[in-house]
Amino acid sequence: MPGRTPGRLHRAVCPGSFDPVTNGHLDIIERSAKLFDEVVVAVGVNKSKNRLFSAEERIEMLAQACAGWDNVRVDGFTGLLTDFCQEHQIDAIVKGLRAVSDFDYELQMAQMNSSLAPVETVFVPTSPEWSFLASSLVKEVATFGGDVTGLVPEFVRELLLKRLAERESQ
Ligand code: PNS
Known about the structure:
Elements: E1 11-16, H1 23-35, E2 38-44, H2 55-65, E3 72-77, H3 81-87, E4 92-97, H4 100-116, E5 120-125, H5 135-143, H6 154-169
Parallel strand pairs: 1-2, 1-4, 2-3, 4-5
Bound molecules: 4'-phosphopantetheine (PNS).
């Protein structure tokens, strides 16, 4: 990579399903953008039956939410994350850790990923204010009429309520 300093990590990926993006995700992305020259937010678009938002919708939401950060771009990926990393000259995978319970599986994935490709996983502790936050919980709370204001960007909250209303009327 031109201008690359040996021994330094330059381009990182923040991968996830982001169904939908939460303020916890955005906190990790913003802090990653301060640590690395470039950050690619990679939206996993492998087939899954249980998504509320399509791949295109999730990518568009991320693009809007990350528009203010110059060194952050958003992309989708299918297949293995390590293949995406190699195709895009990415040398670090950033994962947020909310609690010790996240660690077991994340460690396993980090070790598997490093066995597949020369990529480091960097764990970033979630800010305490978001340590309870998960997309699945946001969807569940909103489904049953709970208020998710402040947990996701306002435009995401509106899209979430709209999608849930559409599902309800089907
Ligand atoms: O937001 P999520 O659902 O926790 O994100 C999980 C994701 C997309 C980062 C993870 O499932 C992933 O990396 N999937 C790509 C497939 C892959 O590389 N699997 C091997 C992992 S060791």
